[in-house]
Specification:
With about 260 residues, the chain is of the alpha+beta class. The chain has two domains: about 1-105, Pseudouridine synthase I, catalytic domain, N-terminal subdomain (Alpha-Beta Plaits); about 105-240, Pseudouridine synthase I, catalytic domain, C-terminal subdomain (Alpha-Beta Plaits), CATH 3.30.70.660. Helix content is about 20%, strand content about 30%. It contains five helices and ten strands, in the order βαββαβββαβββααβ. It has helices at about 25-40, 70-80, 135-145, 195-210, 215-225, and strands spanning about 1-10, 45, 55-65, 85-95, 105-115, 130, 150, 165-175, 185-190, 240-245. Strands 1, 2, 3, 4, 5, 6, 7, 8, 9 and 10 form a ten-stranded mixed beta sheet that branches. A hairpin with an 8-residue loop joins strand 2 and strand 3 (about 55-65). The chain is globular and about 60 Å long. The protein starts with a strand and ends in a 17-residue tail after the last strand.
């Protein structure tokens, strides 16, 4: 039987999603917990591998098991063996044709910027602090040039292993919240993402919002198709994988991002 799970985690104390020879990983913790429930070794596949320090509220995974458990058995059983910074949110049986990564049609990320002159304490590893004053109207104008199907070579990491740099961005929207508008959300949805793509986009938009670069710079960077001509890579702490969309016939929940403190 193939089981799909929704997973959320605080990535601050993980060396990313993927199992490594050394270091604590989300995949390693989840597989160990599921193995305790299934009474056999478990290997999971995820919708999107996240880097060290990156969080998720809408990660989707799947695994195969011959153990017969109710949906709530997988959820509560695994959570009983998981650390406080990881949780299984839902579980459901799916067809063998479902694959958490390859069946996904869209992925959605939210990048949270905390904009004020003084660095945060409680939010230190859950947002990215920006001491500069950012003009989100300029940032939105720049972001509009990245919507659609493009070659995002300038916005991917040098070590990105994707065969093609072409991706389709369906939405890229900036909003403010908080009593003084100190939280800036960058919501981006695409068919798929390249390594560091979201963080590199945020790096370019932040420079534009701070007035260090013109609005047209985002489009110019895109046209260069060369990473070294792009901006800095924004820190991982403000990045959240918040949702993955699949064909309706799989019946995979698509949950709205939690509002948290923002």
């Amino acid at each position: 039987m193939r089981i799909a799970l929704g997973v959320e985690y605080d990535g601050a104390n993980f060396n990313g999603w993927q199992v490594q020879d050394q270091g604590r990983t989300v995949q390693g913790c989840v597989e160990q917990a599921l193995a305790r429930v299934a009474n056999h070794g478990v290997r999971i596949s995820c919708a999107g591998r996240t880097d060290s320090g990156v969080h998720a509220t809408g990660q989707v995974v799947h695994f195969d098991s011959n153990a017969m458990r109710k949906d709530r058995g997988w959820v509560h059983g695994a959570n009983a063996h998981l650390p406080d910074d990881v949780a299984i949110v839902w579980a459901k049986p799916v067809s063998d044709q479902f694959h958490a990564r390859f069946s996904a049609q869209r992925r959605r990320y939210r990048y949270v910027i905390y904009s004020r002159p003084v660095r945060p304490t409680f939010l230190a590893r859950r947002v990215t602090w920006e001491y500069r004053t950012l003009d989100i109207e300029r940032m939105q104008q720049a972001a509009n040039s990245l919507i659609g199907e493009h070659d995002f070579s300038s916005y991917r990491a040098y070590g990105c292993q994707a065969k093609s740099p072409v991706r389709t961005v369906h939405e890229l929207k900036l909003t403010r919240s908080g009593e003084e508008g100190e939280f800036i959300m960058v919501d981006i949805e695409a068919n798929a993402f390249l390594h560091h793509m979201v963080r590199n986009v945020v790096g370019v938009l932040s420079a534009i919002g701070a007035g260090e670069q013109p609005v047209d710079w985002a489009g110019e960077v895109l046209a260069h198709r060369e990473r070294k001509l792009g901006g800095v890579t924004a820190p991982p702490h403000g990045l959240y994988l918040v949702g993955v969309e699949y064909p309706e016939y799989f019946g995979i929940p698509y949950l709205s991002p939690p509002q948290m403190v923002w």
